[in-house]
Design a protein that fits this description.
alpha+beta; binds FE2/S2 (inorganic) cluster; DNA polymerase, domain 1; 2 domains
């Protein structure tokens, strides 16, 4: 067992966990944050993407025990009071179909825009390249991120 202290969506948690518990299972099963999705379980699809200390990670590949003192953002951490500009823009351009990839996609997009509000289309495509979507063909998703960028004051 490992004792960890971490912040998830701004809320502090101090708990004992087994040393082989994956971050995705900690989030979904222990904290009941079911918005983080599991697809491939091997780092290929990006459905399980969350932000740890400002960087996106595949939570299926990360041990929760390695996140001691980390700050984590899951999809539940954005847009809880009102829609995040990314959520608003995705809805407006019709970037959501089945929705399974969307939590991870939004977090990757958020990480891109948090770093660079003027990200180019190429940088947006590169930033979401680890997130697979079997429905949309990506064009609407790129349009959604571009519109959100404008809502957030970028060019
Ligand atoms: S479930 Fe983690 S990358 Fe696919
Ligand atoms: S909207 Fe269905 S996988 Fe992306």
């Amino acid at each position: 067992m490992n004792k960890i202290c971490l912040k998830v969506n701004g809320k502090s948690h101090e708990t004992e966990i087994s040393s082989n518990l994956r971050l995705i299972d900690f989030l979904r099963d222990e904290l009941k944050l079911k918005g983080t999705k599991e697809g491939c379980s091997e780092g290929e699809c990006g459905a399980c993407t969350v932000i740890v200390n400002g960087k996106t990670v595949n939570s299926c590949l990360v041990l929760a025990a390695s996140c001691n003192n980390a700050e984590i953002t899951t999809i539940e951490g954005i847009g809880s009071d009102e829609l995040h500009p990314l959520q608003k823009a995705f809805m407006e351009v019709g970037a959501v179909q089945c929705g399974y990839c969307i939590p991870g996609m939004l977090l990757s997009a958020k990480a891109i825009l948090d770093k660079n509000l003027n990200a180019s289309e190429e940088e947006i495509r590169e930033g979401i390249s680890g997130n697979l979507c079997r429905c949309t063909g990506y064009q609407k998703i790129v349009e959604g991120v571009t519109l959100a960028k404008q809502y957030m004051g970028g060019r």
